[in-house]
Amino acid sequence: MAQKGISRETVLRKAIELIERNGTAALSMRELAEALEIRTPSLYNHVKSMGELYADISRYAAEELRQAQLAAIKGKSRDEALGALASAYRRFAKEHTGLYKVTVSLSDLRDDASGQAAAAIAEPIFLALSKYGLDEEQMIHWQRILRSIIHGFLTQEEAGFFRHYPASVEVSYQMALRCFLSGLHAEIEGGQYEGQ
Amino acid sequence: MAQKGISRETVLRKAIELIERNGTAALSMRELAEALEIRTPSLYNHVKSMGELYADISRYAAEELRQAQLAAIKGKSRDEALGALASAYRRFAKEHTGLYKVTVSLSDLRDDASGQAAAAIAEPIFLALSKYGLDEEQMIHWQRILRSIIHGFLTQEEAGFFRHYPASVEVSYQMALRCFLSGLHAEIEGGQYEGQ
DNA sequence: TTATATAACTAACAGCGTTAGTCTGTCAAC
DNA sequence: GTTGACAGACTAACGCTGTTAGTTATATAA
Description:
- The structure is a homodimer of 196-residue chains.
- The first copy, chain A, has 2 domains: 1-47, Homeodomain-like (Arc Repressor Mutant, subunit A, Orthogonal Bundle), CATH 1.10.10.60; 61-192, Orthogonal Bundle (Tetracycline Repressor, domain 2).
- The first copy, chain A, is elongated and about 65 Å long.
- By secondary structure, chain A is mainly alpha-helical.
- Chain A has 8 helices and no strands.
- At the A-B interface, α6, α7 and α8 of A face α6, α7 and α8 of B.
- The structure holds a DNA duplex (30 and 30 nucleotides).
């Protein structure tokens, strides 16, 4: 019955901790309450609903991923920056599997929150692409393409799709990035993608 | 109490129907039973568990996606085949959103089933890539890269990541494919990806 | 006609997120 | 120092989820 010094912050931190330790599936109101040494309904004194909590976690995760990318491209430019960004992105997904999954499942967030999170994740890529002298529309296209490659790769790697074939996953990832860079350079130099 | 002519087949078909109509989230044992005009526990006379049912649906969805790809590349070769495959893949994901999502979440299947499904989806890409004269390891790499692009793109499009920026999603997709093809041709002609 | 297997049923359990209503410990005001 | 109010804990309960056990009725084979 005594006040236990639990706040919205505390709950959020503990939820993140549980996700980091045991994965997304292990996060339930019951587990969360137990970890905080509280009865389940008491959580609702600090958090409106599971969905809202998830939105908070998602915001946090997006910000972490953004910071990881920003740190990676800092002081670097163009191809070097993009390479570092891609590596940092993959490292983040591997080291924070649970958080990355939350980042991915933005679909069921309210539109404003989802937009914010999406922008936070996309920003570093725009930053790195800005050194190539593309116009705004082309930047959007190439940002989408790079994110597709990176995210698609990581999703499938996580899902175990790459386990069934005997070829280095790391090499595949490097090749994918070089494929992107060669396409990007072809656009800039040859302009072969224009008029579409 | 009368026998109602329900079989494992019937249940599977109805489950797929529900997913197609109302999305993955709408599939529950209760809804499924109701649609079949049966009490929920009666389902267990035909299906062992929700997980097993999901595995069956997943197998079905993977086969459908495989057929869509095979039909697309039939009679075509190389770049034309890959273009058609990519378009068919996206069309499938758009027209069968629920089924495609099931296809994606193979991760929690048993390993053998997941391997089968993954192979079914990957096969058409291998088929289309086989006309480029790549060795086996390179085929695996390029298959992974193409799947990453396609799947990553579709996942993010579905999640609404592309809604926030004013540029044609269709054009982005076409550019992504051309990016892949130019990278692939650079590999074949220049051999610039060797020795990695 | 009888026996057996199939497939329906009801009742129940443990888990989930969530709400309503209650009690209590802490802090501010008089 | 006593009182009042609020924050934060509680218990009890609801409807949902998947699932199991045990029972009953029907259809088919002997």
